Each structure stands twice: as structure tokens, then as C-alpha cells.
Amino acid sequence: MSRSEIDFETKKEKFVSSQLAKQNNSKKNNQTVNKGSIAYMSKPNVKAFNKAIENKMFNSSGVGRPYAFESVEKLEKDMSEYFQVCRENDIMPTNVTLALWLGVDEDTLTNHANNSSSPFFGVMKRTKQYLHSLMQSGTLAGEINPVAYIFLSKNYYGMRDDKNITVAATNNSGTPNAQETAEALQKQLQEEHISEATISEK
Length: 202
Hints:
Elements: H1 3-42, H2 44-58, H3 72-88, H4 95-102, H5 106-114, H6 121-140, H7 146-156, H8 178-201
């Protein structure tokens, strides 16, 4: 066997070994995630809560039209029952499970909370704020992952992460040119990079 063939075989063996190691690590990670999910779903309070949601979803007699809810009073009563079940089972209330409890989808809750002409606007708006406040309190108490809080807040509660960049014009026209705009953006990116590096070092 020539030198080049030996080198090729050695590289092939290393590659195969590395791929097998990756597969093993992937299996271990999946097993860890699955074990965690199974353990969570097996908790008595989680099982009881999920059962209550299922009963409400599949044993309801139907909902009214045209707004999917019979009345504000009935909606408030159903919401009170939902929050009571959450408290009894130590489960964090969410938009998703609330929607399931009420027999609608998440978009319906959002549409009413954003539509001031809806008869359910007030209760939906307050409920949305209440759900957000629970998550915010849990995050500040260190019980909820801040990354998860940011993601959910942006997707469900309208939080935004805007960057305002001021570009000052150096010419007499008062309008910044392309180079000035590019320099302002570059400066902003550098400042963010330094800030992130500082945070990660702490």
C-alpha cells in the first residue's frame, strides 16, 4: 500500500470515527431532552392541568357567534375558571392554553385585544397585560429564562427591540450622504459588539 493510500485510509477512519461520535452525542442529547419532557409530563400537577384543558376542549357544548363568546360576563367567568385551574396545579397561564380553554385560537384572543370596537376588547386587553405581568414577574424573580421571556414578549405582547441611529450631516445641505450613513451604522455595530463582549466577560 502506497503512502498516499495509507494517508487516505487514516483520514477515512478519522472521519468515520468523528461522525460516529457526533451521532452518539446527538442520541444522548435527544435522550436527555426526551427524559426531561417525559419527566415533566409525568408530574401530577401537569397531568391534572392537561386533563382539565382536554376536558374543556373536547366536552364543550360549543360557542356563540358572531364573536365566539356568548357575553362579557360568560367570558370573564370562563377566564376565572381557567386561572383557578392554573393556580390549583401550579401552572403558568399562557395565551395558548387560555385559547384552548375558551375554545378558540390565539388569533381570536389577539384580534379582540387589538380591536377597540369589540365588546370583548377591555377584558382581552386586561388579560393580555395580566399574562405578560406574570411572565415579567417570574423573569425578574429568576424563575423564567430571560431569553424565553424576550422571545415570548416579542411574539405575544408586542415588545420591540428597535435601534435608533442618528446620522449627522456634515455638508451644508443638511442631508447625510451615503458615507456618513455607513459610518454611523458601522459605529453602532461596533458599540453593540463591545457591549456584548463586556456582558459575556462578566
